Backbone:
């Protein structure tokens, strides 16, 4: 979600006057702001509608729903921003310091936002236990993951690229081949660890027992999960979960992973409301933004970086769109092929097929916005998204900490339930019930 500068006059930018800089700001790619704002709006929508509309919220395990595109969109946008911000690499040390500071700020912000300042306000579970805090994520789009992708992409752009000449389209791969080597290395490490590590049996102490009923109580038991496999991509015995349990500690993983919505984790109970049988792994913590999956998240960011190279080096709309659409067809097509031959589309594991498919969709979405906003200049229909894109970090902070929701919900008509938030939730639930 980093900022970016205008594309033209990169070498003269340092000496521009304030008036010239203000004039040049008009040349910034408006569609990128719109895309960022659209992603923010999508994040807010799936956050609050996902629990009501199953096809909007995250897929329980394999497959992709609307919410599963939010994170790849942000990573892709971060990559584009990096290619523009660091296109002038005259002082690589200063640029590296600048990138590192931004990444650290974003990572720390993500950790602080789960501090509970406005969470749990209606219960006694206010705040977050430091002994169990998630290092790599919070409930909304994750600044920590974006920070990781941002710093790696920035280092690739600053240190692993040659000085390219504008409109030298044939050199887009030649000048950045080291970056593609990084993509290959990260993907190889990911595949090797995911399919090559042996996952033994393991056990854990459930943090909570309620799968779907708030009346369920915590059980003082130790659950044992039988694995003894290699290359398993299920929720219980995948290598990504084992790596996180070993390196991060099971207490620092997400205690309500999305696979709890799988049918096997919703076994009907008896008349007293107690569950009779369910797989032992259903109550296990699992971090969908863990260490191993972050490797492919970085790849998504580098894809956005390459996409941004086209934006910086090619000035002709037709050549840009041709290259982008070919890239979109190639990545999304490869993602679908991999899914058909047995590599599942899985956001929690951030599989290669999921990376390619979501990248292709991100490219196609940006192309549509680019044609609408920057070529045909239909900016007024997307003005709200453009504004949101320019203030994306502030909006994210307000939403992630629930400040915005509390502020809106605080105004009501005669009855506390007569507020905008309650009205929207009721309306969504009403139409969801009709569809069912």
Residues:
């Amino acid at each position: 979600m980093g900022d970016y500068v205008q594309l033209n006059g990169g070498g003269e930018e340092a000496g521009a006057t304030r008036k010239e800089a203000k004039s040049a700001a008009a040349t910034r790619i408006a569609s990128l702001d719109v895309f960022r704002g659209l992603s923010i709006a999508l994040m807010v929508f799936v956050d609050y509608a996902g629990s009501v509309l199953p096809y909007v919220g995250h897929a329980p395990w394999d497959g992709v729903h609307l919410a599963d595109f939010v994170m790849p969109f942000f990573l892709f946008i971060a990559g584009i921003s990096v290619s523009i911000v660091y296109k002038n690499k005259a002082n690589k040390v200063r640029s590296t310091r600048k990138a590192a500071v931004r990444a650290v700020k974003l990572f720390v912000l993500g950790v602080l936002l789960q501090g509970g300042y406005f969470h749990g306000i209606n219960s006694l579970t206010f705040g977050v236990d430091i002994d169990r805090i998630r290092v790599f994520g919070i409930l909304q789009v994750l600044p920590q993951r974006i920070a990781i992708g941002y710093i790696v992409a920035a280092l690739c752009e600053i240190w692993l690229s040659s000085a390219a000449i504008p409109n030298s389209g044939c050199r887009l791969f030649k000048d950045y081949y080291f970056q593609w080597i990084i993509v290959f290395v990260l993907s190889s490490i990911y595949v090797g660890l995911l399919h090559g590590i042996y996952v033994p049996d393991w056990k854990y102490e459930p943090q909570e027992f309620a799968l779907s009923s708030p009346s369920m109580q915590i059980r003082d038991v130790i659950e044992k999960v039988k694995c003894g496999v290699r290359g398993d991509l299920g929720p219980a015995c995948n290598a990504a979960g084992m790596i996180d349990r070993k390196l991060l500690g099971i207490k620092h993983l997400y205690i309500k992973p999305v696979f709890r919505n799988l049918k096997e984790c919703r076994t009907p109970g008896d008349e007293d409301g107690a569950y009779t049988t369910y797989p032992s792994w259903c109550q296990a913590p699992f971090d969908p933004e863990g260490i191993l999956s972050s490797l492919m998240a970085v790849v998504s960011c580098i894809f956005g970086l390459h996409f941004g190279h086209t934006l910086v080096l090619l000035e002709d709309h037709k050549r840009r769109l041709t290259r982008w659409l070919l890239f979109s067809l190639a990545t999304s097509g490869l993602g679908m092929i991999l899914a058909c031959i047995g590599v599942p589309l899985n956001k929690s594991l951030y599989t290669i097929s999921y990376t390619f498919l979501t990248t292709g969709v991100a490219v196609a979405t940006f192309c549509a916005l680019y044609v609408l906003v920057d070529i045909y200049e239909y900016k007024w229909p997307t003005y709200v998204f453009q504004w949101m894109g320019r203030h994306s970090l502030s909006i994210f902070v307000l939403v992630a900490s629930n400040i915005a929701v509390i502020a809106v919900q605080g105004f009501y008509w005669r009855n506390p339930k007569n507020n905008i938030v309650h009205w929207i939730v009721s309306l969504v639930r009403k139409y969801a019930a009709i569809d069912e």
